[in-house]
Amino acid sequence: MTLDYAEFHAAVYAVVRQIPQGRITTYGHVAKLVGMPAYARHVGQALKLLSPDAAPPVPWQRVVAAPGRIAARGPGSDGAARQRAALEAEGVDVREGRAGEMLVDLGECGWFPEPGTVAFEEAA
Fold it and tell me: What are 72-110's pLDDT values in tens digits?
């Protein structure tokens, strides 16, 4: 399957909107669910470019890096701290790893449906 830029972003947002509150998945799994498993980094980019005014809202905070790491957003960014706060507000336990990274337990709160079982709409 090949999606253009707009179709890919729309598919990512449609999948992420289906992640239940208090559950987490990875960039790579979202890529698999939209039929483009090699595009995990592109999922992150799509979520980075997401408008805060997206309607309906896209719960971007529910997508993390493997293996449950909240991805840094670069120097001077508070994105990881905002993601942590949003996840904790949903009842997700976020802990600090040995190197100070923020981690969630994917075994406890992971959401990993099989590819082909989650509907997404492709942009026309």
Answer: 776 667 888 999 999 999 999 999 999 888 999 999 999
From CA 52, how far away is CA 38, in angstroms rounded?
26
The token pair at 79 is: 């994105």
Tens digit of pLDDT for each residue in 44-66? 999 988 888 888 999 999 999 99
Q: What is the 3-state secondary structure (H, E, C) of 37-49?
A: CCCHHHHHHHHHC
Nearest to 28 by CA among 72, 79, 80, 63: 63
Q: Which of 110, 114, 96 is nearest to 63 (CA)?
A: 110
SS (HEC) of the chain: CCCCHHHHHHHHHHHHCCCCCCCEEEHHHHHHHCCCCCCHHHHHHHHHCCCCCCCCCCCHHHEEECCCECCCCCCCCCHHHHHHHHHHHCCCCEEECCCCCEEECHHHHECCCCCCCCCCCCCC
Instruction: Note the pTM of the prediction, 2 decimals.
Output: 0.90
